[in-house]
Amino acid sequence: MKRMCLMALLAASMTLGLGGCASLYPAHYYQLDSGTASVPKTKAGSAVQIRSLTIANYLQRRTLLQRHSDGSLSEGKARWAGSLTDDMQHVLLRQMAWRLNSNRVVIGSAPEGYRPEVMIELDISRLDSGPQQPAVLDARWHLLDGNEKLRGSRMVHLEEKHDGTEADQVRAQSLLLQQLAKQLSGAVTVAEQAAKKSAKLSSKQPRTQVAQEIDLPAKRPKIIPIRTGAEVYRF
């Protein structure tokens, strides 16, 4: 009986000891960085809605995954401090609002009374890195105007080097999202300029037609003699 008690105490001591050793190596938690983006100065700006943001299923976890040379993924000790999806939305929203200088950039459902001038459908299929692998972002987006007419579409592949540490991997992944926001903002600006140019041309076209109609002299109808086969006899 005494021997069993001693063995139980020894097992408990070993468990506590291992727990104490594990506490010496706590998990590190990270968040994506939105960079130096500042708050827009204007109260208005372009109404841009990222109405759908689809993120790959394998990224829906708390662990900072590590990519290896054979393409496989493994879980490390590092963790995301919260939802990675929320972090990605925050980076994109803050970066685009800053680059477009607009307080009317939204992600997801639009608030009541909000009428977007440009809508974006974004699909991020990859965002990861590894000790020996660069940070990689693969995405595809569609750009639509306020009438839901397609104005642009693009597939994106971006890479960023790092020093192999988990902290620098997060930095590299953050930079990739910032670059994606830069490309999206540029596409929005081009679409807006094209829409304004089209509207300007369409507004001028009716006036030009009226002016042409006024300047043209009135044409008199051409008189065509009528001939008949009848003969006139005089007596």
TrEMBL record:
PROSITE patterns: PROKAR_LIPOPROTEIN (PS51257). InterPro entries: ABC_trans_aux. Residues 1-22 form the signal peptide. Keywords: Lipoprotein, Signal. It holds the Pfam family ABC_trans_aux. It comes from the Bacteria. Residues 30-184 form the ABC-type transport auxiliary lipoprotein component domain. This is Lipoprotein. It comes from Pseudomonas asuensis. The lineage of its organism: Bacteria, Pseudomonadati, Pseudomonadota, Gammaproteobacteria, Pseudomonadales.
